[in-house]
Design brief:
This protein is an alpha/beta fold. The chain contains 13 helices and ten strands. The strands form two sheets. It has a six-stranded mixed β-sheet, sandwiched between helices. Strands 2-1-4-5 form a four-stranded antiparallel β-sheet, with helices on one face.
Length: 332
């Protein structure tokens, strides 16, 4: 999409300049819920409760247009639930802090279903890929396109009406499969793909509607290391083509490498926002992730060289807390 079709398709011309983008973000205050220079998404007073447990409690959040924004936080922080709420797959609970609302490109999405959200230009992927296993790869791709007249019952009998559009959709699907290195798999059943290939397929399918904002839920989870760099490249290409990216990820090295801005959630709330190099050293972030590991830089490449992942550190910290708890009970 070298012609920046994503931004142009929704009326927002965009010429990518990462240095200029980061210069804009450099002057933004490092506080949760801070206003952005050019937000594509705004969320206010969004809450979600499950049986009295508040899983999401976001007072205010803005996502900068044209940037790669990472949404990070420990397991159970509410990241996926938050994704579900703003994309219409779930409904927020009644807010106790003010009227709930969220806007995308200046348009309110309150009381809007998932299909309408997608048609507005905001699409998402899932932690667990949602491919249709018994359909071919190219057919899975074609399902992601909008404006398909052949889907109507009566028009389906009139091939001259829907044929040209169907041909254009197929050409677009094949173009994206080529770009994501899945072209040779186009006639295979989607169920035969590896986990990493399914992630690529889902990301490629999300682009069939030329979205303005792509939301990726743990795109690297379960991916073979051989495909990790390919996925990283594709995420950066999305931004370079004018598509805003908001993604959830636990790999701090990936977050530091590709993100322009990082938002941190803990216990359902936004606890920190900053550029990646700064947020990794934020005390609130370290407390949320590691507890006792206050001196650990979450993006320290030395950890990667030692083969120690963030999840291992979290588990180690949790183990220390558990041992301290047992000791306290024994002392008592």
């Amino acid at each position: 999409m070298s012609d920046h079709s994503s931004g142009l398709a929704h009326g927002y011309p965009y010429l990518f300049d990462r240095q200029a983008l980061r210069a804009q973000l450099a002057v933004v205050d490092r506080i949760p819920g801070v206003a952005k220079p050019d937000p594509i998404l705004k969320v206010s007073n969004m809450e979600r409760e499950f049986g009295g447990l508040k899983a999401v409690d976001v007072r205010h959040l803005e996502v900068q247009r044209g940037a790669i924004t990472a949404l990070i936080g420990p397991n159970g922080a509410g990241k996926t639930t938050f994704f579900n709420l703003i994309t219409g797959f779930d409904r927020p609970s009644a807010s106790h802090s003010g009227p709930t609302g969220w806007e995308f490109n200046g348009r309110s999405l309150k009381h809007t279903g998932a299909a309408t959200v997608a048609r507005s230009g905001m699409v998402r992927t899932f932690q667990l890929t949602k491919v249709l296993s018994r359909m071919t790869v190219v057919d899975n791709m074609m399902l992601g396109a909008q404006d398909q007249p052949g889907e109507g019952f009566l028009l389906s009998f009139l091939r001259p009406v829907w044929g040209p559009r169907d041909k254009a959709i197929r050409e677009r699907a094949l173009e994206l499969l080529q770009r994501f290195k899945l072209y040779e798999k186009k006639d295979d059943y989607a169920g035969s793909l590896s986990g990493g290939q399914r992630k690529l397929l889902e990301m490629a399918r999300a682009l069939m509607s030329n979205p303005s904002l792509v939301m990726l839920d743990e795109p690297m989870a379960g991916v073979n290391p051989a495909l990790t760099q390919s996925l990283l490249d594709h995420v950066q290409e999305l931004r370079d083509d004018g598509t805003t990216v908001l993604f959830v990820e636990h790999d701090m090295h990936m977050v530091r490498f590709i993100s322009d801005w990082v938002v941190v959630m803990a216990e359902g709330r936004i606890v920190a926002e900053a550029p990646p190099a700064e947020v990794m050293k934020d005390q609130a972030v370290i407390d949320a992730y590691l507890g006792a590991h206050h001196d650990t830089d979450l993006g320290d490449d030395a950890l990667l060289a030692e083969g120690e992942s963030l999840d291992a550190l979290v588990a180690q910290g949790a183990g220390q807390i558990t041992r301290r708890g047992r000791g306290a009970r024994q002392d008592g």
